[in-house]
# Entry
Amino acid sequence: MRIITIGSGILGLSVALNLARKGASVELIDSQETLGRTSETSYAWTNASGKLDPNYHQLNVAGMEEHRVLHREFGMESSYTESGGLFIADAAQESGLRERLLQLEQHQYPFRLVNAHEAEELSGITPRENAALIAYFPKEGYVLPKKLMHNLRIAAETAGVQVTPGVVRSIADHFTSVSVELMDGQVIHADRVVLAAGRWSKSLALTAGIDLPMHDEVAKGSATIGVLGYALAPQLNLRAVVHEPTINLRPSAPGQVVVQALDLNPQADPASATTAGDPIGVELQNRFIDLTGIKPERFELRLSARSLPADGMPIVGSAHAGSNVYTLVSHSGVTLGPLLGKLAAAEILEGTESDLLSPYRIGRFEDGSRSFEAHIPTRIGEQ
Ligand SMILES: Cc1cc2nc3c(=O)[nH]c(=O)nc-3n(C[C@H](O)[C@H](O)[C@H](O)COP(=O)(O)OP(=O)(O)OC[C@H]3O[C@@H](n4cnc5c(N)ncnc54)[C@H](O)[C@@H]3O)c2cc1C
# Structure
């Protein structure tokens, strides 16, 4: 089968790799140089502790397992670290955390309560005096997203994926085949198209007459916007992903820490250049210094935009019965991308419907019962 994959973020690379390994002839259309990728600027925490819906929780746990599979495959080159994750709650967050842990117990999700001393040993961060309850999630971790994508791309090309630089203008489904037209006028034909173009997927789907329910507005205050700080602080030996009341931290390249504060996202304006000297950058740095006692040697602010299905859950599968367009879009795509790529490839080539994917078909939006209201991500796990 000849398959075109549109998009070379974590989702597109993962599905292209799995399709090629299963024997398909895959052309990956890649506009990374022109449009960028959400996957490059991601907090990149592999997690399920904030995802309590049973189906979604199970999907994310399976997504975390797939990172272990890739870790074994990539060996020394792997970008995955199962560092564990800490959630430090103050008095205001304590009952919410206790409630969450009760539900996680029902899901048999591994965690344990730790004291401040253990938290420091595990993470390198000394919890503030107001810490009321600290939970440790040993199976959580993080990836270095650029390195993961590099590894996926090399593996995909080795498996035979042909990478074509270009921007897709439109998709045309001819029912016995499908074609895409690039901005330079080139038309490429195939048996199936996998639409994995992240936050650009909604507008591309429309060219094929598909209404893909996603939030794709990128403006100040929109739910898609997320800001990350990259702090160079070699004195801080951060060893785990840490969430505490004012700031979230994850280890990055040697000496570097990625910092995030979800409550600051609505202040970020994608229309103007975002620099570390902006109020949001200053506030993020101050929170970092306040917690760690360390002034970063360098601090950079980067703005990113989520690929956000309307109800926050993945949309995976054929656009409608008989369609040659398979949609593959998801938030939490770092945790889920490698797994979704593998499951999608099996569905496309073997026709086997995955139970894990069945709650995430586009058809769930048809009865109008789902809220399309944009929800600004503020809770842990929504990142
Ligand atoms: C601030 C922030 C923090 C996050 N934190 C986490 C986290 O901790 N854990 C987690 O699991 N997830 C997290 N996410 C979500 C995760 O990063 C995304 O879900 C994931 O990166 C999406 O990957 P993707 O491959 O779908 O999209 P992308 O990486 O955006 O890739 C889409 C690709 O499609 C290409 N493309 C678009 N249009 C066209 C076209 N017309 N023609 C050709 N190519 C095209 C683009 O150039 C790009 O290469 C976070 C996201 C943000 C913004």
